[in-house]
Amino acid sequence: MPVSEAGARSGKRPLWMSVGALLLGAAALWASSRLVWFAESADGGVRGTVLRTQTGAERSGALIPLAVLALAGVAGMVATGGWPRRLLGGVLVAAGVAACWVALSGLRFGGHPEGAPVAEMYAAHGLAVAGGALIVVGGLLGLRKAGRMPRLGAKYSAPGAKRAERDPGTELWDALSDGEDPTTRS
Fold first, then answer.
1. What percent of the chain has pLDDT over 90?
2. Apex CA 57: angle with CA 42 and CA 99, to 5°?
3. Which of 122, 129, 21, 142 is nearest to 77 (CA)?
4. SS3 state at 130
5. Domain ranges in the chain?
């Protein structure tokens, strides 16, 4: 395997790790938003005491938008490079921290009503924390390794190498090609 091919593969690894973490984090947040996050006993009138539950999407309106932001971050990580990718990484780290905060702020240990799906509630909060942590990891990879990751369309960009200096002897031939007499120039 040539050296350049090995370097290209090692540069792609952090990109795909970041993309994978962001996709898994978005999926975890979305799945968590579908599970029960809160349960309470309420007076149901004629029916007596009724157990009312709320899903993560009903309890916190931030879970699905944060999952969508992580999905958009996947496209941004693949398409950008340099300082825009670092900026996106910082935004994704903040989004992951926000997801963890949302998950932990509504968590309570004990005091659950009879018949509440306690295991599902803890799993939902844990899934949201895991999703937020994965988004933080994906953002940190973009933040720290932005310069080494490949960018979309980078193989079609012109190389940034310095131009070779022109040989002074070719100036005479260029002047002749332009129809000038190089011996009469001063």
1. 37
2. 120
3. 142
4. helix
5. 7-153
Burial classification of residue 49, based on how many CB atoms lie within 10 Å of its CB (0-12 exposed, 13-18 middle, 19 or more buried)? exposed
Task: Identify the architecture of domain 7-153 in CATH.
Answer: Up-down Bundle (1.20)
pLDDT (tens digit per residue) in 117-152 = 878 889 999 999 999 999 999 999 988 877 777 666
The model carries a pTM of: 0.73
Q: What angle do CA 97, 103, 109 make, to 5 degrees?
A: 135
Q: Residues 160-175, buried b or exposed e (16+ Cβ, 10 A)?
A: eeeeeeeeeeeeeeee
- Report the greatest alpha carbon distance in the chain: 112
Amino acid residing at 23: L
Place of tokens 């398409």: 79
